[in-house]
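Budget justification aside, the reviewers requested a transparent look at the raw inputs and outputs of the sequence design task funded under Objective 1. We therefore reproduce one unedited record. The lines immediately below are the structure tokens for a 132-residue chain.
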């Protein structure tokens, strides 16, 4: 059975797409810890990020770096942090989080509830800044 992230990447479940190509997909986290919190996934379903082939892992990080640059152009922040946790969904993924301070990377922080219109506007702006 396909993971929820595979269904999102396939367009079977709606998402706020920030960037995509044939191999990778980036979309806003629907329970963000800060505005602009984005998930980057390989379209190929692999549970554990370090089970990706080395070249695929490298390409995933290059894609994520391009998404991070687009996030930084879109959301005022000092840097875009990267986190790989991988316990909550059985599909490899990278969290990209705009940071004003290291506290913005705490997953124990309260989750934001942003209106759908704001989420769509953020995703559209990141996608517009993404250099595909």
């Amino acid at each position: 059975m396909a993971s929820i992230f595979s269904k999102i990447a396939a367009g079977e479940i709606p998402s706020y797409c920030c960037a995509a190509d044939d191999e990778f997909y980036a979309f806003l986290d629907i329970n963000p810890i800060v505005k602009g919190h984005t998930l980057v996934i390989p379209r190929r379903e692999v549970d554990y990020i370090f089970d990706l082939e080395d070249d695929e892992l490298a390409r995933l990080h290059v894609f994520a770096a391009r998404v991070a640059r687009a996030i930084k152009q879109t959301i005022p922040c000092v840097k875009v942090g990267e986190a790989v946790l991988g316990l909550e969904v059985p599909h490899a993924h990278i969290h990209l989080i705009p940071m004003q301070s290291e506290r913005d990377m705490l997953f124990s922080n309260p989750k934001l509830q942003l209106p759908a219109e704001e989420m769509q506007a953020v995703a559209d702006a990141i996608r517009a800044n993404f250099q595909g």
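The mean pLDDT is 96. The first helix runs from residue 4 to 9. Computational costs for records of this kind are itemized in the attached budget.
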